Each structure stands twice: as structure tokens, then as C-alpha cells.
């Protein structure tokens, strides 16, 4: 996949406010698949649509997880154990809450540090290699918190039927939706979101 930093930033835009519904991790295959329902808009669409998207990360070099029994900034919240075998059930138990913040790729220096001393799981592939990229995600319904970061080398995007989608096409659909929202396009109404500032992505 293209390693252009601009594309990774655009993919982050496409993931903003997406529902994070599942994460499958196979440590033997060095494979993680994160599933989302994201916002997207086709150029000639009469209405917006939700995109079922799978991000296939491979090879996974490291996967760090922090599951805490409390609010995200509660330093006294108990850290709960997680294993590769229980990770998927834990992610699903949050019910597919949205992730937000525009930036999810290659931001581990900023996002990982606040919880790096409270790890429930720190899986590494054993060869000492560092991933070329990272994906940082979370779920935070206030009574408990899940943070995770996956370091990997390559990304494949699939749709809900398992068909390959170009990363550029996924990024473009997401950017189109967010620009439409900020322009007051009625196709994006009905999701409880009101723009407060200019759209972040560059034209």
C-alpha cells in the first residue's frame, strides 16, 4: 500500500465517528482485522450511506491493549487482564461504539503514551521488528475503557462482502461525506452531528 503520509491522514478522516464493531486477531498468522461501520458518500448519491469496512493489518508486529474498570482519565481504575483469545469478545462487548478524533494511524507516539503503563496485554511477534505503521483505537462508555494500538506493516481494505476496496476510494468517500456535512448538505442530516468549525481535510 502507498506509504504517503497524506493518504494515512485521509484514512483517519474516513474513520472519524465510525462504529468500531469487531476485532479479530490471529497471532499465528500475524493478522488483525478491524471492522467498522463508517460514513461515506458517493459523488452522485441521493443519500448518504453507512459503509461496512474491514481493515486487514498484516503482518502485525505488536498489539497493546489496556482494559480498565473506570473512566479513561481515572488513574486509579483497575487494569483488567486480556489475552489474544479473549480480545475479540471484549471488543464486541462494547457494542460497536464510535471512534472519533480524526487521527488514528501512525499517532502512537501521542496516543499510546497516556496508557502505556497500564497494559492488559502487550503481544509482540518475537522477532523484534517494529511495524511501519500503527492504528490506535478506543471504546469509552464511561464505566470502563478500552484502548488498543496495533503496529503493522501493510493495510488492505475490504467491504462488507469481503471484496477489496482501494484505500483511496474509501478515503474519498469519507472525505466527501464530511465535506457535505460541513456544507449543510441535507444528505448528511439525521445523525445528531452539527459542524462547529471548518472541515479539517485539505481540498
Helix and strand topology:
Layout (H helix, E strand, L loop, with lengths): L4 H11 L3 E8 L4 E10 L8 E21 L8 E3 L6 H7 L14 H4 L9 E4 L8 E7 L5 E15 L4 E2 L1 H16 L21
Antiparallel strand pairs: 1-2, 2-3, 3-4, 3-5, 3-7, 6-7, 7-8
Helix pairs in contact: 1-4
Task: Give a description of the structure.
Strands 1, 2, 3, 4, 5, 6, 7 and 8 form an eight-stranded antiparallel sheet that branches. The chain is globular, with a radius of gyration of 17 Å. A hairpin with a 4-residue loop joins strand 7 (145-159) and strand 8 (164-165). It has one domain (5-188). The protein has four helices and eight strands; from the N terminus they run αββββααββββα. 19% of the residues lie in helices and 34% in strands. The protein has 203 residues and is of the alpha+beta class.
The SSE string, one letter per element, is: HEEEEHHEEEEH
Provide mean pLDDT, rounded: 91
- Beginning-to-end CA distance, first to last residue: 22 Å
Number of domains: 1
**Number of discrete helical segments:** 4
Which tags fit this structure?
8 strands; 4 helices; alpha+beta; eight-stranded antiparallel β-sheet; single chain; 203 residues
Question: Outline of this structure?
Answer:
The protein is an alpha+beta fold and 203 residues long.
Amino acid at each position: 500500500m502507498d506509504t504517503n503520509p497524506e493518504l494515512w491522514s485521509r484514512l483517519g478522516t474516513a474513520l472519524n465517528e465510525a462504529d468500531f464493531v469487531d476485532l479479530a486477531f490471529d497471532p499465528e498468522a500475524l493478522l488483525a482485522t478491524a471492522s467498522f461501520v463508517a460514513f461515506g458518500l458517493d459523488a452522485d448519491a441521493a443519500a448518504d450511506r453507512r459503509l461496512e469496512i474491514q481493515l486487514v493489518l498484516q503482518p502485525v508486529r505488536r498489539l497493546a491493549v489496556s482494559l480498565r474498570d473506570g473512566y479513561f482519565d481515572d488513574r486509579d481504575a483497575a487494569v483488567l487482564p486480556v489475552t489474544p483469545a479473549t480480545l475479540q469478545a471484549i471488543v464486541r462487548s462494547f457494542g460497536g461504539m464510535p471512534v472519533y478524533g480524526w487521527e488514528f494511524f501512525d499517532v502512537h507516539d501521542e496516543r499510546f503514551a497516556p496508557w502505556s503503563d497500564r497494559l492488559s496485554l502487550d503481544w509482540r511477534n518475537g522477532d523484534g521488528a517494529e511495524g511501519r505503521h500503527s492504528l490506535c483505537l478506543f471504546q469509552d462508555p464511561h464505566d470502563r475503557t478500552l484502548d488498543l494500538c496495533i503496529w503493522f506493516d501493510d493495510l488492505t481494505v475490504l467491504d462488507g462482502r469481503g471484496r477489496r476496496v482501494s484505500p483511496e476510494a474509501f478515503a474519498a468517500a469519507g472525505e466527501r461525506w464530511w465535506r457535505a456535512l460541513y456544507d449543510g448538505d441535507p444528505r448528511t442530516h439525521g445523525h445528531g452531528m452539527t459542524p462547529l468549525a471548518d472541515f479539517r481535510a485539505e481540498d
